[in-house]
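Section 5.1 Outputs to date
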Amino acid sequence: MHAIIRWIRADLRARRGQALLTVCVVAGVVTALILSLTLLAGALDPWEGLFNRSHGAHVWIHARAGTDLAPLAHMNGVTAESGPFRTAVATAVQEGQRAPLEVRALGSRLPDVGRPILAKGHWLDPSRPDGIVVERTLARVLRIDVGDRLTVHGLDGARHDLPVIGVADTSDQGPYPAWTPGIAWVLPQELTSIEPTSSHTELLEGLRLSDPSATGFIVQQVVTTLGGDHVDRVSAWPQVRASLEVDSRLLGLLLGMFGVVALVAAALAIGNATGGRILSLLQDIALLKALGFTPAQIRWMLLLEQTGLGIAGVLAGSLIGSVLTDSSLSHSLFGSVTENATAPLSFGRLSLIAAATVLAVAVATLLPAWRGSRVSPTSTVSAEPPGGRLSRFARAALLMRLPPALVLGARDAFTRRLRAVMTVGGLAIPMLMVTIALGCWSTLDNFENHPEQIGLAGALTARPVGLGGDEARALIAHDPGVKTVYPEAEVDALLPGQTRTIQARALGSSQAPYPFPVRDGRLYRAPGEAVAGQGLLDLLHVHVGDRVRLTISGVPVIVHIVGRTIEPTLSGEVLSFGMDTLEQSVGTSPAQSYSIVLRHGAKPDTVRSRLLRESGDRLDIQATQNPAQRLGIVRVVIFGLIVVLTLIGAANLLTATTVGLRDHMRDIVVLRAMGLTPRQVTTTLVTGTSVLALIAVVTGIGLGLAMSTRLIDLQGRSSGVGAGIGRAPTVFDLVVAAATALVLAALTAFALARKASSIDVRDVSRV
């Protein structure tokens, strides 16, 4: 055993660069796997953790003022209740920015069910009767903190300057602005001051269930018990969980896919490197066997060396992954995605990643180690280069009358066909994943540069504040930077069976519909027609062409779904139709806001400033939120993954070049005797590696193009946004990626081949 360890130590010292590269590859793969599992766990754990800490309610019911909610506590399946609390609609104003607000009246004592979790400051206190506690995501958007003052306008327009005494998290609804309105809490007397008219308030009741899977049935019972005309809105825990997990789930799936594929590519690279190292050590191994080493000892020695490098990489990757998922650092890296998306992995999950990686390294080493253990002791006398027939590449090069150096290089590429296949596979897999990563990058670019293709044609949203609807629309349409103005109204609709509420959106009219990007079917053209997001179609188990019965403001409404749109909000669970459909169904329904489509070249900030000035600040104008703004971290992740894949590709290139040089060291004598110059010898050796790299690049890009948009659309469909969002990488990006890979292959081969071609012929002949 002592001799084995001494040999391993000497071999690692002689090949420090290869050993370090192997450790870096394994470390990069382990880091990617840790981040992927952390984010995938964080996609669900933040909501579960928050829900458990707040002893959250599974169902929240918004009922009209005066509704008797007492029977709800005695329903079968309800274990606890929260409320009823009075709520009022208001508008929060901070430094010219407005946000719709739902103000909830709670006492100084937190409720047992559905209690907000303080993140900063303190809870409501009778000694500060005008104090307000703001939900964390709303506070972040408004850029307010404890100690600031928040201006709140009630429906009557009265202004209330309230000191912010706390910032809290809640499991009641998803993050703002994906969920509107934002939430804030005040004492009951302050709510009365903000909204003195009791008929303009609502009652909020939370129910905690013994069986969360029975949520739909309980909601149906609630609506039946209270009456559909008394229930304005219902939200359930699955909706909240989905809204919290959507972004981190995307990152987790992306990292997970790259991590698993990178692990396969790394196994190929390690197996290739081990095989190459064994080929370069054939005479050493033969000498060891001549000295008495058994085949089992040789296998154990090679396996122990590579597994040790794998363990070193696992330890380095685990350390890097743990640092990246540390609470403070992860918040700065992933805070824009979700507040608590990166809780550190448990020891069991870390152990599983480490064991799987070490096992992959060991399995990749077994075959080369077994082949190395079969080396004959007579290899110390002679080492014959591999033989074989001309490959098709070499024949084609010969028929094309290419220079001799290129013909010989094309022949050398496939001297060892198994090694050539492993090299091509080890390079093609990283190139495949790089192509998919570039497809994700192109999709994000398309989100940012062409928001109209994901249903965000309106760059601005304007809400009248003390201004008539017709007057506001005329003022907006008169601006030279405005192309079209679409009236908009959002209402809550109870689904068939009245088990939950979705957002129904009236936008434009049947004669002038909003330019939704329709992927299946068509836009609405008549009252009663509507388009829906993929998430809503999946929720209702319906297809384009079906009819759906909804309840809006207590009135049954039947709509004909004529198209499927790309819907980036609320997990695609949105129904859209014209204003005339809403007016005919539930009576007069004035526009709540206006979606503003700008002319080409018009800048949103310029148009917004001009409209605010011309309206005398009687318009609340906000920029439309683009989901690409929340996914900026994806670009950082993609860049990091490309670095890991580059390391894997570099390991394969280095191995392929080293093996090729080892096989053809004796050929250098023959080539020099044939009259080839050192430069031609170098060209021959570089060509062999470059041919394999070219095949790998073409194969990887081809497979990547075939899979990229399909995978992105599959993710879009599963997340509710809908298929049709995927974009292929640009030609420029592909050319740069391919050129980079080929140049890297050529430079790696050139650096080693130039050194080999300059070796004295007498030294080579003695090998």
